[in-house]
Amino acid sequence: MAGDGTAIVGVPTSIAVFVGACAAGPMNTPRNIFSWSDYEAAYGGLDGGELGHAVRGFYLNGGGEAWIVRTDSADPSALAGEQGARTGLYALDGVDLFNLLCLPDLRRLEGGAWLDVATAAAAYCGGRRAFAILDLPAAIATVAAAEAWARTVPPALGSANSANAAAYWPEPQVPDPLAGDSLRAIAPSGIMAGIYAQTDAQRGVWKAPAGTETTMSGVAHLTVTLNDDENGRLNPLGLNALRQFPVYGCVAWGARTLQGADILASDWKYVPVRRLTLFLEESLSRGLQWTAFEPNAEPLWSAVRLQTDSFMSGLFRQGAFMGMTANEAFFVQCDSSTTTPADRAAGILNLIVGFAPTRPAEYVILTLQLQAATDAD
Predict the structure, then answer these.
(1) Is residue 336 part of a domain?
(2) Helices (H) and strands (E) in the chain, counts
(3) Rounded distance between C-alpha atoms, residue 297 and residue 192, angstroms
(4) CA 163 to chain centre
(5) Model confidence over 159-197: pLDDT tens digits?
């Protein structure tokens, strides 16, 4: 059988995409970069806009591979783009894989304009098994305003979209070389994408990108200094706090998705749980593509179970799941109970994978439909 002996390989988890306006570079054409010097060579470096500072923050904080999409303006229509023309977000249709999406120009938008672009971004991520780091409007300048935003705006994204996004507040302040190194507030998304990448590399996508080890390089201050009480008002609403401490500097102090409000009790409350799920779905989908032309019967199901179990066991040994044993940590099901005669006739193979994420401890169930040959083939 074609899949026998072929190991499923985990996909990358922290390829970042930056979509926004800048002064130079190819327009609406994704370009792959691997360093800040690559960005400077292709897009001219800092130019007074938001995009350059976000990319610079990404690389200062551990980022690696990225894609850049330059839009012709920071207007909502340019950022969201058009699918038929492959502009804005839809320029990414030509990129095979990315994991994190940043639109730092969001901080310049407000109200309906912000919501339109953020909704489009989160929905696009949902279709690509990616995760958006959404920047709040710069006008959100007080704890009360941030609290009001967290109560009203994430629900307007819709539950499917809010599960695929996170937001951080307040804004970091960085020295601006274009203004004599005076401090400038910037969107936190690029910095946080770098911290995600660094955490993934050091600990794994299942580790929350938060805590004392997430010191934000290049950041001098935050626009608002939160205390524990204020942090405790924002975090239960699903808005992740950035904090400044005397010893650790400026750090990320929350790891919730925009569906992470306590009142929702969502399976996708936590960033690492959602991102681990996206990683598993993408890795299994790609790693099992060989099933498309195999007879949809027990020999195929057995091979799928074997490969999937091996992949999940490797992740268990790395600490990706809760449980003292592999049997406690995950299960794999692919047999006649998951794939009915009607499924077989339609060339559909159903694989169910359950796993216990490190937090919360309940099982999360994945159901994947794979292609297999029909009974008539």
Answers:
(1) yes
(2) 12, 14
(3) 45
(4) 10
(5) 999 999 999 999 999 999 999 999 999 999 999 999 999
